[in-house]
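Example 3.2
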Amino acid sequence: MRTSIRTAGVLAALLALGATGCAGGRTTQDFPPPPADLTSTDPAGPDLAGTDSVSTDLVGTDLVNNVRLVAYADCDEMTEGLRRAAARTVTPWGFGDAMFYAARSDVATAKQAMPEQQSHSTTNTHEAGVDEPDLVKTDGDRVITVTGGVLRVVDAKTRKVTGTLRLVAQDQAGDQSWVQAGLLVHGDRALVLFEGGGIIPFGATATARVAPGGPRYVLVDLSGEPRVLGAMTVHGQHVDARQAGSTVRLVVRSQPEIAFPAPKENASERELLEGNREAVLSAPADAWLPSYDVESGGASRTERVGCDRVSHPGRFTGTSMLTVHTIDLAAATPFGSPAPIAVAADGDTVYGTAGSLYVTSNPRWWGAHPIDVAPAPGSSAAASTATPGVPPERTEVHRFDVSTPGAPRYVTSGSVPGRLLNQYSLSEFDGHLRVATTSGDEVLGASPGTGESGVYVLDAGTLARTGSVTGLGKGERIYAVRFADGLGYVVTFRQTDPLYALDLRDPAAPKVTGELKITGFSAYLHPAGEGRLVGIGQEASEAGRVLGTQISLFDVSDPAAPAVLSRFHRKGSGSEAEWDPHAFLYWPSTGLAVLPLRNRAGGGMAGSAALALRVGDHEITELGVVTHPRSPARSGFAPADQGIRRSLVIGADLWTVSGSGLKVSDAATLADRAWIPFT
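Structure, written as tokens:
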């Protein structure tokens, strides 16, 4: 199964905490290049019978938005277009698995989505009113968690577990702590997202087992003792999910299911390629149509996305489908209505607002990359080989309209130079989409010190470029991005940390207004009152060697002169908040900031705790730390104890969450109030 970019990013970031420098990944020479015909204006894909009509020098500009905004007329049209595109893209080894040019950290910044008058905190999300999956949720009365394959409901007032539902069977060692899941909740219904797939939920009468398949989404009733209402297993890879009100949008990526011929002994690459292309050109429509299994009311069924619900942008490879499933948590039958839609495109990053859902991908990170193999004279592939060499980096952007509760509508596609850091590199504001990317840099095999970054402003309706500002952080790459209405902040890093302040109020003429250089870097930026930003990252030496967690308070009240007001440094430590914004808590009414902290010891990581800080108008001070009892030793392939991972505020209480349990502390003094173990 393909490892997701998000998962790979977390693993990379964890490894980086114990390292003194970045280990070099495979260079671009290790991988065949993506297709040169991504710029083809043929909406059905490149024509195998001739040469592409558009020169590859178009790669240096925005892709032409030659987009069909309607679904295929019928299955024959869809199959023919996908066959032709996929035959152009297939390699002698098929479509391949994820081919990463280098490890990518999924560092994130977050936008505060919590009204100050609330008595409880919510998941730290990118956009207000758009929820994101996480391992804990609260409505102020209940705390709902999913850890180790077990969902638990805790009463916030009595601090007692009121409901438990095991969704994954215990193995012989009794340890399922490796099972990762997220939660989305509306009223008395919870959707549990098992992103890795292969998980079968079970109850008193069901048999627990691990089965093949893709991501699994389990609907749970919380009105009494928690119970499973239904489930959906998708044949593909989970990309991400967003929730607005009771409506959840699930984004899934799938590859065509094509049986390639077994390679013959001593066959040349040309012969292998020819056989694979023939298999592609004879594959049926069902090879591409995404499928999913639904279980409800004791019955199960398998469904496919209909040909009439599949669309495509002006250029596509035929090697991937993006499917958007819509689930209404308030509906009597949430799964299967409305029907999902699909687009012939790749995707790895999701950004959502109340009215738009954006899915982006960088072809350099994903899937099949054809190589330059000379076809036999007169063969069907004679005029269709890919141009050798690595193409410029580009981020493809696909926009869906989700302004109504029903099925989304595919609107348009476009692209910008470079690659995204994560979803926080995207921001929709005043009819425009702002996109921050990095081009070059040795992390993708380019020469050291060649990276530079830019912010591109696109018309949200067409994704055509309105304006841009480039040349940020030459020789560096983006580590954090934060957009705030008409302003933006970009952190780049190689040896020092330039924090750039940008004026984006004129979409046609964005500009840099100020720059601040300090040692280290911020990997996550968070608003902390009028004219203030908190940065979570790493302190570094003048040579760029990381030295431990650093929390900075920036004054950005004057965009022309950003300044650092206060810095807190903990040597030899790292925090999950550096790459996952859900791990950071900021409570505006008191200035309380909490983040997990893990200290390095003996080359490994030890001593997990939650660090509590007080963020004032001019300084950051330490309030103290919260610790949990250590979990018992793990067995088998289960990972080590991850320690405290989340924190939340309910009234005057600070709740912290780990795989061992929940601790309740006084939010002002950190005095212990209760310990709720997970048994």
